[in-house]
Design goal:
Elements lengths: L1 H5 L11 E7 L4 H13 L4 E10 L1 H7 L3 E4 L4 E4 L10 H24 L5 H7 L4 E4 H6 L5 E2 L8
């Protein structure tokens, strides 16, 4: 947010982009949603750069970036996540209903930001879904494979 504040008087197309490097096993669904929302609101372009494993919540944060680059050795792990529930029956069922809605959002998020079909996503996301950089490029998860070190600078 700092860069958006500092750059507020600079036209969006003239701003220096924010570069985020990704090599992460993932994280929390709620934190991921907040970070994705902030990236989407950013008027300063945010470039996601996959430099290794980009898994779980990290893959969704990466997909929210305005441009997405990757090293040829990078890969993504997409899945429905995991949850631990406790409480009485009604509260557990309420949590399950909410979790289902969140998973539907994640499925739509992938579809909106890639060339995968709904059928492909719904089938593959039943398990840990590994996507290597060449396929990620072909299917639109990645915009470009990095071939020049200057892209990282």
């Amino acid at each position: 947010m700092r860069w958006n504040k500092e750059d507020k008087d600079i036209p969006e197309m003239d701003r220096q982009p924010i570069k985020l490097l990704f090599d992460s096993p993932g994280g929390d669904l709620d934190a991921q949603a907040a970070i994705c929302s902030i990236i989407e609101l950013s008027k300063t372009p945010v470039i996601g750069i996959a430099i290794g494993m980009v898994a779980s919540a990290a893959s969704y944060i990466y997909l929210s970036c305005h441009a997405r680059l990757a090293l040829k050795s990078s890969y993504f792990i997409l899945h429905k996540g995991s949850a631990a529930l406790s409480g009485d029956f009604d509260n557990i069922m309420s949590s399950i209903d909410d979790y289902k809605k969140e998973i539907d959002k994640l499925i739509n998020f992938i579809i909106e930001r890639s060339k995968y079909t709904r059928t492909e996503v719904e089938e593959q996301i039943k398990k840990d879904w590994y996507v290597r950089a060449p396929e990620a490029l072909q299917k639109g998860l990645v915009d470009e494979i990095i071939t020049d070190i200057n892209a990282l600078l």
